[in-house]
Specification:
heterodimer; A: 471 residues; mainly alpha; 2 domains; three-stranded antiparallel β-sheet; 16 helices; 3 strands; elongated; B: 246 residues; alpha/beta; Rossmann fold; six-stranded mixed β-sheet
Chain lengths: 471, 246
């Protein structure tokens, strides 16, 4: 009997116009999103390779280390292949950081910065389609699952037979879910095939595992709305009421809670603005620069050779001065770095607290949980961005030390000439992307929330249907 | 055989929808229940199908207590509603196949389905058509086909001819007579006094939840059933309807 109910549910859905519409729209949207994702990724990859080459060329073309220290080196954020599925914050945050001796590096030049119109509508990636379009489809498939049968009178006819209610609701859940999966699975498989065969797109074993986890997440997310639809359908007496209630809940889940949580968090944890922090850093820099000149003059006064015509004494003085400048420069840079790091730490701690509150609060909504988890799995989330920025900031003192040393070692005080730039021993920025285990651990609360909501809504639908007034 | 014993339903708001109703429908008998809208006819049917629990009393279907063993009792009863609404995207065959399987009947062939559909007077070209395009008469016939193929000894019909054109209504009632002749116990609530008189073996009048007046075919001979109905319904509201036990 269960088999018959499941079969009927599937047959009824796939012969309905809404299925044809859903299937076509799902296929077009999913394939389009993956195609645009791949195109964007390839463009970003090209841009990234070109930016690396240009940076190297720029560094090599510098006449000396002094110029190189002023120009700094550019660190480009590598594009993430899974950004094709979930672009995350990738398009909103900066992609390149300039590491110089003087300033704290920051990632700038985001895609939205260069093309602000993109920020108006956001990216049409798969996670967005699942979050908005497919969740609406899940509602469309279930809002009348029970109440609709009551209105039609088929529920009475069905239950005039020896059909236990628990088996009927189970059949409806299984059959309905399979019907919802069909328009989703086929285009998803097609998109996987595209990813597999598309040239220059290579997914590692870990990427495939991440992708599968993301698909599992999508299924869970849709199941939340599917079971919610059943629940509301089993609690209402008119399908129009059921649809309106579901639409209201959908709006609350998808737009109100995420936005409201960010607003609430920013009210609870007020943090200084970025400009305030920059102003503090600049003030300290000016203070150090002002004192530096005096420090050099004092050192010269104290250490100048008594006989300035003695060439040996002059040579010894110059060597000593070079060493002093190197150490002094290093000392001042360290002071600047320490001060900036302290300011940054304080700012980051406050920002993180605000961010954590906003994230945790918005996680009540499955739509937020979906976004956070898919971003974490695609390595395009806030955490990955901050990890990358931290790696760039950690690289700054390494680069500074190297360039300062080179600068001082390369100066010939007698001729004023400076050594040419050789990049062979320049330390390189290293960034280790987050491992799958850690990413997965971070997504566990999101998976957990979705499983909880599915169980809650299903149990609600089940119990409600057992007591449902079929008249 | 279908039997209601002291069947009572009082809703949570205090409304007494069915008030200690007793009746018995024997095999090979058509029992027609008349009553104004809100008299309690549909509630009585809902109680017999266990869609709602009774406040008091019970229903016996082939001797099985439908309140205590609702699922088992449903093996012995078929139901045709006032407005048979089926799965619109399914054909007559598909609808019939689904409900036949729910009724626990398997291994039936398309030829079996065609025979039943034919027997209820559905035109052959409609067998493979989607039922969303069916007229009400066609849907009622298909609803009856679903009841017929289940082959349950008792058939419950809730105003099955309402809204049907005279020809379809007549055809429908002829089918019921055929089923009665096969030995089925048929319980039908209806407003269609004129046609019901032609086929009913017994009639009952329901008012304010009470089954008040019962007449057999013999007692109706020479009586104007419409006049009788109007007279009964116009009796003073405070005059209690005489409880009838049959």
């Amino acid at each position: 009997m269960l088999k018959d109910i499941i079969k009927k549910e599937i047959l009824e859905t796939i012969t309905s116009p809404k299925f044809v519409f859903t299937f076509l729209l799902c296929t077009i949207l999913i394939l389009l999103s993956v195609y645009t994702g791949i195109t964007n990724y390839r463009a970003e990859q090209k841009e990234y390779t070109a930016a690396l080459a240009l940076n190297k060329k720029n560094l090599e073309s510098q006449p000396n280390y002094n110029a190189l220290a002023g120009l700094g080196t550019k660190i480009n954020k590598p594009p993430q292949v899974l950004g094709t599925v979930a672009s995350g914050v990738g398009e909103a945050v900066g992609r390149v950081a300039t590491v110089t001796v003087a300033y704290d590096p920051n990632l700038v030049d985001s895609k939205y910065e260069s093309n602000p119109v993109f920020s108006v509508f956001g990216a049409l990636d798969l996670s967005y389609i699942v979050k908005i379009v497919l969740s609406l489809f899940a509602i469309l498939f279930t809002y009348d699952a029970i109440v609709g049968e009551k209105e039609k009178g088929t529920l009475k006819l069905t239950l005039s037979n020896k059909v236990p209610r628990d088996r009927l609701i189970l059949g409806k859940v299984i059959g309905g879910f399979i019907s919802l999966l069909i328009p989703l699975i086929i285009p998803l498989i097609l998109s996987l095939l595209i990813l597999l065969v598309y040239p220059n797109i290579s997914l590692s074993g870990q990427d495939w595992a991440r992708l599968l986890l993301m698909f599992l997440l999508f299924l869970l997310y849709l199941s939340v709305f599917f079971t919610l639809g059943l629940f509301v359908s089993a609690r209402t007496t008119r399908s129009s009421t059921s649809f309106l209630v579901l639409l209201f809940i959908w709006v609350v889940f998808v737009t109100v809670i995420p936005k409201f949580s960010v607003m609430t968090a920013s009210q609870i944890y007020q943090i200084p603005s970025v400009h305030e922090i920059t102003a503090k850093k600049d003030a300290f820099l000016q203070q150090i620069q002002g004192g530096a000149q005096k420090g050099v003059q004092d050192w010269i006064k104290q250490n100048s050779p008594e006989d300035d015509k003695d060439p040996q004494a002059q040579t010894a003085f110059q060597a000593k001065f070079k060493k002093f400048l190197e150490d002094y420069q290093q000392e001042l840079t360290s002071k600047i770095d320490d001060n900036n790091a302290a300011l940054e730490r304080d700012y980051q701690a406050k920002k993180n607290a605000q961010q954590r509150l906003a994230i945790n609060f918005s996680r009540i909504s499955p739509a937020s949980a979906l976004m956070f988890a898919s971003m974490s799995l695609a390595r395009t989330g806030i955490d990955e961005h901050e990890r990358f920025l931290a790696s760039v900031r950690a690289y700054k003192p390494i680069f500074t030390k190297w360039v300062n040393a080179k600068m001082m070692q390369g100066i010939n005080f007698q001729t004023g000439e400076q050594a040419k730039v050789v990049l062979d021993d320049m330390p390189q920025h290293k960034f280790e992307p987050e491992g799958l285990g850690k990413s997965f651990m971070r997504t566990l609360p999101d998976f957990g929330l979705m499983v909880f909501l599915i169980i809650f809504f299903f149990a609600g639908a089940y119990v409600s249907f057992l007591k449902y007034d079929v008249r | 055989m279908l039997e209601a014993i002291n069947l009572t339903k009082r809703y949570e708001d205090g409304q007494l929808a069915v008030d200690h109703v007793n009746f018995k429908v024997e095999p090979g008998e058509i029992f027609c229940l008349f009553g104004a809208n809100g008299a309690g006819k549909t509630t009585a049917i809902n109680l017999m199908l266990n869609f709602i629990p009774p406040t008091e009393g019970t229903v016996l279907i082939e001797g099985i207590d439908a309140v205590k063993e609702p699922l088992r009792s449903k093996d012995y009863i078929s139901f045709v509603s006032e407005n048979v609404m089926l799965y619109g995207t399914f054909t007559a065959y598909q609808n019939l196949d689904y409900f036949t399987k729910l009724a626990g009947k398997r291994n039936l062939t398309k030829a079996d389905y065609a025979a039943v559909l034919k027997s209820v007077g559905l035109q052959e070209e409609a067998f493979d058509a989607r039922t969303k395009n069916y007229s009400k008469g066609m849907r009622q016939k298909l609803g009856l086909a679903i009841a017929v193929i289940k082959n349950a000894p008792n058939i419950l019909l809730d105003e099955p001819t309402s809204g049907l054109d005279p020809k379809s209504g007549q055809e429908f009632l002829s089918l019921l007579v055929k089923l009665r002749d096969e030995g089925k116990s048929i319980f039908m609530s209806t407003h269609d006094i004129f046609r019901a008189k032609l086929i009913a073996d017994r009639v009952g009048f329901m008012k304010n939840g009470r089954l008040g007046l019962l007449k057999t075919r013999g007692e109706l001979e020479g009586e104007d059933l419409t006049e009788l109905y109007i007279q009964y319904m116009e009796e003073r509201e405070d005059a209690p309807a005489a409880p009838a036990n049959v």
